[in-house]
Amino acid sequence: MRGWLLGGALASLLFWAQGALAGTVLVVGDSISAALGVETSQGWVALLERRLVDQGLTHRVVNASISGDTSAGGLARLPTLLATHRPELVIIELGGNDGLRGQPPQQLQQNLAAMIDSSHSSGAQVVLLGMQLPPNYGPRYNQAFSRVYATLAEEKQVPLVPFFLDGVGGVPGMMQADGIHPTAKAQPKMLDNLWPTLEPLL
């Protein structure tokens, strides 16, 4: 009996130690990650939480995404988020609204670079989710916009998902009527786009 109790106590301690070692995953994004237009429980971040559980991982996921947010907004919010949640990993999904507003790609790059640097300084790893713009913004601007993510991934040595909406953007049934926001059907595909990059970091 005594041995059984000791074994149970050790197992409990091991369980809690494993839980304590698992870190927080912080998602800082815009409406794409805030699941605008679909049930929050159907969004890719909620699906990520469920996949972590299914994989036996005990990471906590904090979704700090705000619809309409820009890279400047994310940069302004990040210090408080880092101090509050002390994440092990930060997923940055921003830039789409910068592009849709025609803001200079150089400014986007500076803001995202500062977010990466702040995250690294706090001890967190970073995953950067790349975005692309609709073709009507013109090839010159679109190329400069897309290049921001690849440049940052190389300069800052961070994992990059080149186009988070790959297989979603412009695909019938995957986008809502506005042509900007993914449908519920698209959310698993978005998570699948991220997972191969994210899984090795967990």
From TrEMBL:
GO function term, MF aspect, one: phosphatidylcholine lysophospholipase activity
Stored PANTHER family: THIOESTERASE 1/PROTEASE 1/LYSOPHOSPHOLIPASE L1, THIOESTERASE 1_PROTEASE 1_LYSOPHOSPHOLIPASE L1
Pfam family, one: Lipase_GDSL_2
Protein's recorded name: Arylesterase
Location of the SGNH hydrolase-type esterase domain: 27-185
